[in-house]
From TrEMBL:
Domain Reverse transcriptase stretches: 281-383
Protein name: Reverse transcriptase domain-containing protein
Species assigned in the record: Mytilus galloprovincialis (Mediterranean mussel)
Amino acid sequence: MNLLCNTSNKFHLYRKVLLWSRCDEWEKKYYQTELDKLLNFEVLPLNSCEINENYIEHINSNIVNVVHIAANSCIPTGKFRHYLKPYWKSNSLDYYHNEQRQARKTWLSMGQTRNNDNIFYKQYKDKKREFRKHKRNAERLWESEKFADVQKAAEMDIGQFYRVVRKHRQQKSPATCLNYDGNTATNNGDICKLWSTYFSDLYTPNEHENDNFDQSFYMDVTEKIREYSSQIRKPFNAFFDVPYTEDEIYEQIKTLKCGKAPGPDYVCNEHIIYGGNNKDKSNPNSYRAIVLTSVFGKLHDKTVLHRINKMLTALDKTFPDPLQFGFVPEHGAIPALYTLKECINVFMKSKSKLYVGFLDNEKAFDKIWHDGLFLKLKENRCNW
């Protein structure tokens, strides 16, 4: 079978939605069986000299199409209906709505007489009144449950609190235009091309980067980093030159969460598991690159990070730093703010001055001169 006959760019944005939450155990087993059959194709050995970027991309495309073909044939699908109210199905509103529609249809067929003495008009108004009453009750019940969820999350777990708040926030419409480097795109095709240009510029090394520095200083830093890199590469080879094991991959798959957005290939976490703000939407800098990353890419990143943690543990290194609050389990903005507030209180009681510096560099890890950063870390005795 030619698995590339349906390339990943054939899966359109407004396609059928896979209803992973509604599939039963038999459908999941069926999906796994189909995956096993379709993934039965040969690959080159890892030490083969024929493996290159094009070959890896070819294998990735095969895997992407395999999971799509298997899922589309086994998992139930539906279509996203934005107009449905979240409380509609759980409160039997369909019954009262259909009663109202049927009464209206009967009234229309009997001459549409707007008179309270007309029994059909009276029945239609009664059914409409009853439907609206149940709808308002359902709305109030849903809102009370929503606020109860938020209150409970705020009292128990700050992370859960923010997840509930984000879940209940009103969805915003997507951007209809994009502005970058003096160009404005308004239709889907031009917006996609402008996104491509933006990320291409963002991740392409700047050929004129050294023009911003003194040349002797630039060459000195570059040479030091090259020397340091050659010294530290050998001890790390034992951790990173070994191929990934099935157990490693499986452990990282268990950390994936359901219900997350897919990448550009429309492969979501469920494919693997089962086998906001007010920024300017027209500005590419308002978006994070992580939302565009493939699920397979995220899984690879998780596995690499797991190996780094194992390596640092073996070297008896503390990672991350105990004072780091971001990207650390059971930490977040609240503990950081509490620490800052306590520092302010201590200095206020002692009537001393306190200087606080806040630094936020836009796209810092994408645009920063990495050799210069690594040298500063080395000079400050930070292991990397």
